[in-house]
UniProtKB/TrEMBL annotation:
<keyword id="KW-0255">Endonuclease</keyword>
<keyword id="KW-0540">Nuclease</keyword>
<feature type="region of interest" description="Disordered">
    <location>
        <begin position="1"/>
        <end position="36"/>
    </location>
</feature>
<dbReference type="InterPro" id="IPR013467">
    <property type="entry name" value="HNH78-like"/>
</dbReference>
<keyword id="KW-0175">Coiled coil</keyword>
<dbReference type="GO" id="GO:0004519">
    <property type="term" value="F:endonuclease activity"/>
</dbReference>
<feature type="coiled-coil region">
    <location>
        <begin position="180"/>
        <end position="207"/>
    </location>
</feature>
<protein>
    <submittedName>
        <fullName>Retron system putative HNH endonuclease</fullName>
    </submittedName>
</protein>
<keyword id="KW-0378">Hydrolase</keyword>
Length: 262
């Protein structure tokens, strides 16, 4: 999971919410202008995210629309506050993948290989997690851009907390005693260490290893500098956080030079 910065309004959603403060996301907004407003907002959301799922960082913008999902971080069904319409809150919507619902069941059986909001909703349906689960996982709109809060096990493909980076963070909801615990729970609630995602991270590691091995044979000492530009010059590669961890200080230096903030 990486930090997301949203393009501020006005946009089709904020304009609709201003005119229709008690309307609902579905069907009211999704049917607005024959669905054109919804499609424009979905495009904007994924553009802001560099085409990545807000949770697992797989590429989503190159997939069919039925494999792109809009997630309300705070459940849109919460109508406890008459002045807060969560369904139409621009700062409450993020773009996600479908969490492995289309994966080959013979290779990646479910629910063990569901992830992201699909797995979170599975936990909610089983009574293992409250619908309103702020404080139980990081909100990608509020997570720190730097330092990276995650680490990566290069042998297993697992995401882990970055002990050095997990320092106290202001302006986040945290039901746990430390940021490290919140990172651990985020990984669990979104099932980011399911076999399906670990395999995909290891594919990124293999790509990294191939490029490094090839460069070493040629005694090419610029491989890391070249790779960091190759990976991060465009917004953004799949498994951004994995690539960032693999490239270490090279990535941090480059991201600093481009004023990376999500």
């Amino acid at each position: 999971m990486k930090k997301i910065n949203k393009t501020p309004g006005p946009n089709a959603l904020t304009n609709f919410a201003a005119k229709n403060p008690t309307a609902r996301w579905d069907p009211d907004f999704k049917d607005e202008n024959g669905g054109d407003s919804y499609h424009a907002i979905r495009q904007q959301i994924f553009d802001d995210q560099g085409g990545l799922c807000a949770y697992c960082e797989t590429k989503v913008n190159n997939l069919p629309s039925n494999k792109q999902r809009i997630e309300h971080f705070h459940s849109k069904s919460d109508d406890g506050n008459p002045t807060q319409n969560w369904g139409l809150d621009w700062n409450n919507v993020i773009g996600v993948c479908i969490g492995g619902e289309d994966a080959d069941k013979s290779k990646h059986p479910r629910p063990a290989n569901l992830s992201c909001d699909s797995y979170k909703n599975h936990l909610i349906s089983k009574g293992c997690l409250f619908v309103q689960c702020e404080g139980r996982l990081f909100n990608p709109l509020k997570i720190l851009a730097t330092p990276c809060l995650f680490n990566f096990n290069k042998r297993s493909g697992e995401l882990l907390p970055n002990d050095t980076g997990c320092q106290p963070v202001d302006d986040i909801e945290n039901d746990f005693s430390s940021v490290k615990e919140l990172v651990e729970e985020t990984i669990k609630v979104l099932n980011l260490n399911c076999d399906r995602l670990k395999d995909q991270r290891l594919a990124v590691r293999n790509e990294y290893n191939r490029q490094v091995a090839k460069a070493r044979k040629k005694k090419d000492r610029e491989v890391f500098t070249r790779m960091v530009v190759q990976w991060f010059r465009d917004k953004w590669p799949n498994f951004f956080t994995t690539r960032r961890i693999l490239l270490g200080q090279y990535a941090e230096t480059y991201l600093e030079t481009i004023d990376y903030n999500g």
